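Colleagues,

For the teaching module next term, I've prepared a clean inverse folding example: a structure given as tokens, and then the sequence designed for it. I'd like students to try predicting residues themselves before seeing the answer, so please don't circulate the second half yet.
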């Protein structure tokens, strides 16, 4: 069955760039073929540019953003370690779950949904638990549309605690500055602001985080995500670990070329411009903002207009206009939407198309 070519304006996946889709038609090569390894090396350089880091261990993990999340936690945590986690939405909650499964004692620093986490509270939690192995926070909370400030957490680098940052929805959409943040382990995903289908999770580890992985007293509990093993394939040893997802890597290579060709500043500005335009227009149609501060331009969270039927409206948008938007999560489910303008979907055309459809449906 043929699928409709939908305008993807949910919380991910976004529409991929045309150059990315073309890349899938390249011939498949072996994962140790020098021509393929050249692509893999180029992706490492592209990711260092996009993450803004000099970290040697910078690579795409096989799997979606959640695989990158697990890779950070399973490699840095050992049983009984303390993990401080900022929680103001679904993805902070998921970090707690993953850390807990690693056997860690989780210290939660919570903030209400729709609000940001005050970085000072995270720093205070670290001061109160200086033995904490990691401090983890989500940069762009996709469940609420709120940005958590990371830069003030750079001071963590002067302690023994490692800073883990989730940039799944921020990378390519708003400024991410891994070396400026002095972050130790940062992961992302391909299907949000990078404009590539889901399937890979770019990650980067600082030298001290790599040192930590290499000096563990117990092996990481995941063989598949063990960075000590994966680094031997991506690095000069070229030792087989698992078969690299060749075609997905071509696609990521092409998507990062589009992003870097446009320029990071230009991409951030494009996401800012279209997101602001949408957020300024939605109140005219009766939608009210859910995020109370530090609103993300690439992910807009809104309460539905009075009396609007969530499922009916989203079904009509999909079936009659070929537009996907995301429903709310948690307390926001059934009452709000999450509208993404990310990657190739972050265009003026997406805003005018969605607003036009909503005007017809709500009149
Ligand atoms: C989407 C998302 C994830 C999970 O990524 P998957 O690709 O769905 O595995 C993690 N963190 C944030 C902030 C996300 O938006």
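(Answer key — instructors only)
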């Amino acid at each position: 069955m043929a699928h409709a070519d939908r305008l993807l304006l949910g919380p991910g996946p976004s529409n991929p760039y045309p150059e990315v889709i073309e890349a899938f038609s390249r011939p498949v090569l072996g994962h140790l073929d020098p021509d393929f390894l050249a692509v893999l090396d180029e992706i490492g350089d592209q990711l260092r540019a996009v993450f803004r880091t000099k970290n040697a261990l910078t690579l795409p993990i096989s799997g979606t953003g959640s695989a990158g999340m697990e890779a950070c936690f399973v490699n840095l945590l050992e049983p009984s370690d303390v993990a401080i986690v900022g929680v103001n939405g679904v993805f902070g909650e998921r970090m707690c779950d993953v850390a807990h499964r690693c056997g860690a004692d989780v210290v939660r620093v919570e903030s209400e949904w729709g609000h940001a986490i005050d970085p000072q509270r995270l720093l205070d939690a670290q001061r109160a638990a200086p033995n904490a192995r990691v401090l983890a926070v989500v940069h762009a909370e996709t469940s609420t549309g709120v940005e958590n400030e990371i830069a003030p957490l750079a001071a963590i680098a002067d302690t023994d605690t490692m800073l883990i940052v989730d940039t799944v929805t921020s990378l390519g959409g708003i400024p991410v500055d891994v070396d400026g943040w002095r972050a130790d382990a940062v992961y992302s995903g391909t299907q949000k602001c990078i404009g590539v289908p889901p399937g890979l999770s770019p990650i980067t580890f600082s030298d001290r985080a790599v040192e930590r992985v290499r000096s563990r007293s117990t092996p990481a509990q995941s063989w598949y995500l063990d960075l000590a093993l994966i680094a031997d394939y991506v690095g000069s040893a070229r030792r087989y670990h698992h078969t690299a997802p060749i075609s997905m890597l071509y696609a990521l290579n092409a998507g990062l070329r589009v992003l870097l060709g446009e320029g990071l500043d230009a991409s951030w500005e494009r996401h800012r411009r279209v997101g602001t335009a949408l957020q300024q227009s939605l109140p005219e149609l009766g939608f009210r903002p859910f995020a109370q501060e530090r609103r993300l331009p690439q992910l807009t969270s809104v309460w539905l207009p009075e009396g609007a039927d969530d499922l009916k409206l989203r079904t009509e948008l999909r079936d009659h206009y070929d537009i996907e938007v995301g429903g709310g999560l948690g307390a926001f489910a059934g009452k709000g939407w999450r509208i993404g303008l990310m990657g190739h979907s972050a265009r003026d055309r997406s805003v005018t198309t969605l607003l036009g459809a909503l005007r017809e449906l709500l009149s």
